[in-house]
Amino acid sequence: MRCVSVQKNARAVGMIIAALLVGGGILYAVPHAAQAAGIRVISWLFDLLTIGCVVAAVFLLVRYRMTGFQYVVRTKAEAEDSGLLTAYAAGAELNVEKLPPEMLDFVVFRSQGARPGVMECMLGVEQLTAAVPLRRKKADGTTKAELRDRYAEEGYVSYDYTATFLADDALGLVFLDGNRYVGVIIEPDERMRAYFTSLKPGGLKKSRL
Fold it and tell me: What 3-state class would DSSP assign to 179?
């Protein structure tokens, strides 16, 4: 099962980047214009603000326009060795939804520009403790901060693999990795979302939700 994340507000991100660059250009020109008019200003402050605008624009460009994610639920190596890899090579379609979680891994690949994707994380599906729909506002549902607070006492780290800037319809997957919880924030398609939300945490690890 594979899913490529989709940037849902690319136009808005482009407008923000453009605004930051324009704003940076204006801030850079202010000290020069003020000097020409005989007005004293703190030039280093405008230089600092200009650098901040440029850095923010570059970050948004790289993170939300040039970076993509692919989410994969695939069989573990021992399952492939038992003949499933041969079935794949022969063109047979493997329905991972029918396999037990102990046989599967969840993998995230990150790609940037024209570079091929590299593996960012790999976690066993049997380690999943919860799959929580996430929203930006508390009034609309569970937020990333609330999800973090539920596991913070026992150790929690979170990785955001969403392609949409300020995503408002993400899915938080919480895995028990050794002695800590790992949160993976993704934007899956309907098939993958249904798969993770249909898993019964009681049959895997205990859930705190």
Answer: coil
Where helices occur in the chain by DSSP H, the ranges are 10-36, 43-60, 77-79, 85-89, 144-151, 190-198
- Per-residue model confidence as pLDDT tens digits over 169-200: 899 999 998 889 999 999 999 999 999 999 86
Label the pairing between strands 156-160 and 180-186.
Answer: parallel
Q: 3-state class of 57 per DSSP?
A: helix
Question: Rounded to an integer, what distance in angstroms lies between the CA atom of residue 161 and that of residue 16?
Answer: 21
The whole-angstrom separation of Cα 88 and Cα 106 is: 18
3-state secondary structure at position 18:
helix
Can you read off the two tokens belonging to residue 182?
């790992």
Longest dimension (CA), the chain: 80
Do residues 34 and 28 lie in contact, with contact meaning Cβ atoms separated by under 8 Å?
Answer: no
- As beta bridge partners, residue 165 has none
User: Contact 96/125 with Cβ under 8 angstroms?
Assistant: no
Contact 83, 53 (CB under 8 A): no
204 vs 190: CA distance, rounded Å: 22
